[in-house]
Specification:
alpha+beta; Beta-Lactamase; five-stranded antiparallel β-sheet
Length: 668
């Protein structure tokens, strides 16, 4: 711990130096460079304005000279003296490396500030009224001269030959600062050139290289295709910053021994009392004795810490004792609640539920004056039950335990939970009674229907068959009697399906598992339905090549009924095409598939077909009679056998596929 404290002390002491150095090296450098860039932009702007104004002044002077009446002497012989004198004087006024001369319409120099160039042919042709041309580091400024007596008659031109090196007087060349003028192609330089690769596409800009900060700006008067480039050496710009960083670094090295000495001494003074406090604290934790009082041996901040720690131990001891008592009470209430719930949950009548609950509450509260009443009483434990007809809560009664006398909110919540459990158990009992009543009524109705309806239906079927067989009836009469027989069979089949579903739901349908010859069972069903398929000219095929089980355990009667229901639907809803019955198995399951090319089923209707009394409502199926119980009954029977049934279809007019999956009893 001493080592960590010493390291932390050194870190705290040296951190400001490190932070300041980092700030100076990174943030300050960025800010300084930014400020230098701003200053460079202002200086370049200033230099650009000076050069633009300088060139503009020269251009104005040349225009003024070209407009003088003296220039009419171009048309007179021996004109060079007066004009040349004016030109020589103007060149002296400029005090620059500059030449002025006048040419006539034949481009012959007839007057100049230097006599040696008079009568020379000037090689530039004047095609514009005002033109600027640069050749061999010279700027040529042309101004046409017109006769004073005829302002439209051009008689010659005044030409200024300006040495671009004159602009060096505006370019700053100091230690670390470089200024020069160049064009976009870098084919001409005025001033000291630097090895910079500049892309002068914009009128002005700033950039930084590894060595220089560069600012450039395009001239706007005469030299419009030229740029002022101002570059500052980074080492010169940041020299003061680097010197300060070196000073701070050496200062930190000098202060390090002093800081180390102070840190060691201060660490020993601080850590010895803290170690003693830590040792005593660990002893308290090991022995779990929070009544211990630590001894105070000093009068400094450590003493204050020790006293605060003693106070904390005292409070902790008190709170732990209170928490232990509260936990015992809560655990006792929780156990009581669980026992009460288990006891109430075993009751089977409303009276038993109320009586048992009162008995258990009396045990908890140790009060014998508690009772159940149906009248509403304020602050008593109210019990609410569900009205299943309206799906709402209604008042059932109260237990005469006044909650207003209970100060503890947790205790109140405990008794409210008891009332809620009682209400739930009462709901359960009432719901079971209601369901049993409904089930008994349903069973009585089905039993009555079975006795009262099946007997007359059998009589109707027998009478119809007798009339058709033994009486001499006309064809129209036979059709009518046949319709009566068919309808009676349909009703009888529907009653049988309803009775089967009722038996399954009541758990009264017996399943007799035995060895079944599944191949023979399917062959019998196939033979039974072959005439119906032939009447509709359907192709029906039985495929059992993939079935390899010799013995299969199931209920033959129920399984045959399932397959009959499925195959009956397939023939009923298939007008043309085929019906395929396929039997196969693997190590775990046996699979029976009935696939047809019938009217098919839409995706949204598939999940509805396994519901009781469900038939799809569409134009194609209006012509087919049925109860809507076939698939529902088949599903319930398949589940009785421990299997599953699935219905698939590609959509309307794309056929259907029913798959029955049963567990292979021979699987190990």
């Amino acid at each position: 711990m001493f080592r960590k404290f010493l390291i932390n002390s050194l870190f705290i002491a040296l951190f400001p130096f490190v932070l300041l150095l980092a700030y100076m090296f990174f943030l300050s450098e960025t800010k300084i460079l930014h400020q230098i860039t701003i200053q460079q932009s202002k200086r370049v702007e200033y230099i650009t304005n000076l050069i633009n104004n300088h060139l503009q002044d020269i251009d104005k002077e040349a225009a003024f000279l070209a407009s003088l009446d003296l220039m009419d002497d171009i048309l007179v012989d021996d004109v060079d003296k007066r004009i040349s004198i004016v030109l020589e004087k103007k060149v002296k006024d400029f005090n620059l490396d500059i030449s002025l001369f006048v040419v006539n319409q034949n481009n012959i120099i007839i007057a100049a500030s230097e006599k040696k160039i008079i009568l020379n042919h000037f090689r530039f042709l004047l095609n514009n009224n005002n033109q600027y041309t640069i050749q061999n580091n010279y700027l040529y400024i042309f101004h046409p001269v017109y006769a004073t007596f005829d302002k439209k008659k051009r008689i010659g031109a005044l030409i200024v030959k300006y040495n671009l090196n004159n602009l060096n007087m505006f370019l700053l060349q100091q230690n670390g600062i470089h200024t020069y003028i160049t064009n976009k192609t870098h084919s001409l330089y005025i001033g000291k050139r630097l090895p910079l690769s500049l892309n002068l596409e914009k009128k002005e800009g700033n950039l930084a290289t590894n060595k220089y900060l560069v600012t450039y700006k395009q001239l706007s008067i005469i030299l419009t295709k030229y740029f002022i480039v101002y570059a500052v050496d980074k080492n010169v710009a940041l020299g003061f910053l680097y010197d300060f960083i070196h000073f701070m670094f050496y200062a930190a090295l000098l202060l390090l021994p002093f800081i180390l000495f102070i840190s060691i001494r201060f660490s020993k003074t601080m850590l010895i009392p803290i170690k003693n406090l830590t040792r005593a604290t660990q002893n308290i934790i090991d022995k779990q004795d929070y009544s211990t009082i630590l001894e105070v041996k000093s009068h400094d901040e450590i003493a204050l810490l020790t006293e605060a720690f003693n106070s904390m131990l005292h409070k902790t001891s008190q709170l732990l004792h209170m928490l232990e008592l509260e936990n015992k009470i809560r655990l006792q209430r929780f156990v009581q609640l669980i026992n009460l719930f288990n006891t109430i949950n075993q009751t089977t009548t409303q009276e038993e539920c109320i009586k048992t609950s009162l008995s258990e509450i009396k045990k908890i509260t140790q009060r014998e004056d508690l009772a159940f009443c149906t009248e509403t009483k304020e602050s008593a434990i109210a019990i609410y039950v569900t009205d299943f007809d309206t799906n709402s809560k209604q008042y059932f009664g109260s237990i005469t335990l006044l909650l207003e006398n209970t100060e503890d909110e947790n205790e109140k919540n405990f008794y409210i939970s008891v009332a809620t459990m009682m209400g739930l158990q009462l709901d359960r009992i009432r719901l079971i009674e209601k369901m049993l009543s409904a089930s008994n009524a349903k069973s009585a109705f089905i039993s009555h229907m079975s006795h009262e309806l099946r007997t007359p239906l059998n009589s109707i079927i027998s009478a119809s068959q007798f009339l058709i067989t033994y009486e001499k009836l006309t064809e129209k009469q036979q059709d009518a009697i046949g319709s009566i027989e068919s309808s009676a069979h349909h009703l009888l089949h529907m009653f049988n399906d309803i009775l089967d579903i009722a038996k399954i739901e009541a758990g009264k349908m017996d399943v007799n598992f035995e060895t079944v010859d599944l191949k023979k069972l399917l062959e019998n069903v196939y033979t039974m339905f072959t005439p119906l398929a032939e009447d509709k000219k359907l192709t029906m095929r039985l495929d059992m090549h993939s079935y390899t089980i010799k013995t299969f355990i199931s209920d033959a009667k129920i399984l045959q009924q399932i397959i009959i229901n499925i195959l009956s639907n397939a023939i009923k809803f298939t007008q043309e095409g085929y019906i395929i019955i396929k039997l196969s198995n693997d190590e775990e399951y046996v699979e029976i598939v009935v696939q047809d090319s019938g009217i098919g089923i839409s995706t949204e209707d598939l999940k509805m077909l396994f519901r009781d009394f469900t038939q799809l409502k569409n134009n194609q199926q209006k012509q087919y009679k049925g109860t809507g119980l076939g698939l529902s009954l088949s599903k319930k029977m398949t589940e009785l056998l421990g299997g599953k049934i699935f219905l698939e279809s590609g959509g309307k007019n794309k056929g259907s596929k029913v798959t029955i999956i049963l567990r292979n009893n021979n699987a190990t």
